[in-house]
Specification:
Blueprint (H helix, E strand, L loop, with lengths): L1 H26 L15 E8 L6 H8 L2 H5 L4 E7 L6 H9 L5 E5 L9 H15 L7 E5 L8 H13 L3 E10 L5 H24 L9 E4 L15 H11 L3 E12 L5 H27 L5 H11 L1 H24 L7 H25 L3 H31 L11 H4 L2
Parallel strand pairs: 1-2, 1-4, 2-3, 5-7
Antiparallel strand pairs: 4-6, 5-6
Helix pairs in contact: 1-7, 1-11, 1-12, 7-12, 7-13, 8-9, 9-10, 9-13, 11-12, 11-13, 12-13
Length: 416
Amino acid sequence: MFILKIILGISFFATLFTLLMSIATFFFPVRKPVSAKFLSDYKVYILMPVLNESSVIKKTVDKFFDDSYFSHKNNVHLVLIDDRSTDGSTDILKSLNNTYKNFHVLKRSFPIAQHGKGAALNAGIDFVRKNNDWDPDKTIVGVIDADASMEITDINKMVNVFDQDDKLAMAQSRVAMNRTKNWLETLQDFEFLVPNSLLQNMRNNFGNAAGAGNGQFFRMSALKERTPWGNALLEDYEISTKLLVNDQKTTFVPDILVKQEPVSNVSGFVRQRARWAQGSLDCLKLLGGKTISSNLNFLEKLEMILFMCSTLLSLIIIITNILSLVSIILGLTIVNYSAPWWMIATLILGLAFVVFSVIQYYRFADISILKAIGCIFYFYIYMILIIPIVFIAFWNFITGHNSWDKTAHGLKESGN
């Protein structure tokens, strides 16, 4: 009973903290928009790992080199790292290789291939170092997934972000989905556009903006290690944390947008999020101690450690919400029984957080009121899905299952 009270107490205060911080972040100052002017003294390399992306890769490359690319001045190179694809992606890349200027394809083979996204990105940065004759301080390296797209004007904006601050090591763009055709896709768009963006804006004000997969950019001179990306399944958060604990500066840029393909079915969503949840545990194991002993301030350390522990905290909160709901139902149906006030408060606080976030989504994403109301229900379905996600993540972490369970993209995924 004592352990249960501790769990319930953690959940109550974690839910209260989440709600208060969400409301507070809404009032935090937001970084001012940046110019999209072309800066001729900078060069940009976009690294794009490719593993079995035959259904999307041609469309992604053609979209990157569209009319916008050629109508705006830029100095951007696209580097695709083929990590030993077996679905025909390699043949597609061969056909594209001579089509565009500033387009490069790296082919990886066994035994070094298919050891995770971090290893593929390390191969990409090695290629840039060997072929780049530009000043490393004015060479910007971006990471965009094979299912994603970013306007060339936004890439130029990102260059201006680095030009405005010569101490900046990493900048993270805002992420959104490129479609919302069903409830699961809408949920992911809501998650990235509102809770994730509010969290990143809070980190900006603390000073510890984090990597979030798509749309990460780095100053090449800041990537001092031979292999900057590690083996954690959350390689984006891992590299930004390594930069922060080494006193490097990071930022989140909300007016620069990268759009990615959402996961369209529940099984794929659970696999993806289980990998991310396990990745946060990897970061806790690899970087938790270094984060605590670093020169970061208290708020930065607190937020980063809480994020690394988010897998466990999410499970505690969900179990508590279920227990609270059961307790309230019993209170309504059984004589001489009433649910404890803090159980009721936990549910109300959780609902208040969801409603607040959905209101922001309605404001920012220009969606219908019905779709916004639907997001409230979608969020609670998401909470139910977190239960298997967390158990899978813990099981894989404990048993040492660290393979990169890659998300499927394109027609094969969306057709399910």
